[in-house]
Design goal:
Layout lengths: L2 E8 L1 E2 L8 E11 L3 E10 L23 E8 L5 E6 L5 E8 L2 E4 L10 E4 L3 E9 L12 E10 L5 E5 L17 E4 L7 E4 L4
Antiparallel strand pairs: 1-3, 2-12, 3-4, 4-10, 5-6, 5-11, 6-7, 7-8, 9-10, 11-12, 11-13, 13-14
């Protein structure tokens, strides 16, 4: 699928969650011509020192965020509601709808299947996924979207490091509105813009 526009950046590790194995995590985001958000993650480091979920049959599964997992959070500007997507290297995924901060529940809709694709080399793991905006309630065709991109990485000793475009003050919290660091504007004239809304 060709992208109308793409944005690339690097995730920042939360200072309270060290990692001895991960060198960097790059992210990309774009919109397809059919209105899907395409997200991509590239993790570079010593993969043999990480706990990476093994490939499984793609399906919805809760609790993916407790292990190595890539995440996307989608909100609409001036609304407390938002959505969370979890993409596991196993090919499993999850989606959640929140009315307000951490007040939500799983979305049990297999049509949201994000078509996760994973490619692994010696020191690189790439994951891509698609988010169907037209199948998310409360997101209008030309709404201004706020997007948070993040990752949880588990090492062999069970320790977790947390990565995001922007971390709010305090402990890691991808749900915090400050973590929704990208703005995607889809005006009526068809001109789309993706912009970073602040410093890490």
């Amino acid at each position: 699928m060709s992208l109308a526009i793409a944005y690339t950046s690097v995730l920042t590790r939360h200072l309270e969650t060290p990692s001895r194995a991960v060198r960097e995590i790059k992210v990309s985001v774009g919109l397809t011509k059919t209105g899907e958000i395409a997200v991509g993650y590239i993790l570079r480091g010593e993969l043999d020192r990480l706990l990476i979920p093994t490939p499984r049959t793609p399906c919805r599964r809760d609790g993916l965020w407790q292990h190595t997992c890539f995440e996307s959070f989608i909100g609409v500007e001036n609304s407390p509601a938002y959505f969370e997507f979890n993409f596991s290297p196993s090919g499993q995924w999850a989606a959640y709808a929140f009315r307000t901060y951490r007040d939500g529940a799983p979305i049990e809709n297999d049509e949201l299947d994000p078509q996760i694709a994973v490619r692994t080399e010696v020191e690189t793991m790439e994951l891509s996924a698609f988010i169907r905006l037209d199948r998310l309630p409360a997101i209008q065709s030309y709404a201004t979207i706020r997007l948070g991109l993040s990752a949880v990485v588990e090492e062999l000793d069970g320790s977790l490091s947390y990565w995001a475009l922007r971390h709010p003050p305090g402990k890691p919290d991808f749900h915090h509105s400050d973590a929704f660091a990208l703005k995607i504007q889809r005006p009526v004239d068809g001109v789309t813009a993706i912009a970073y809304t602040g410093k890490s």
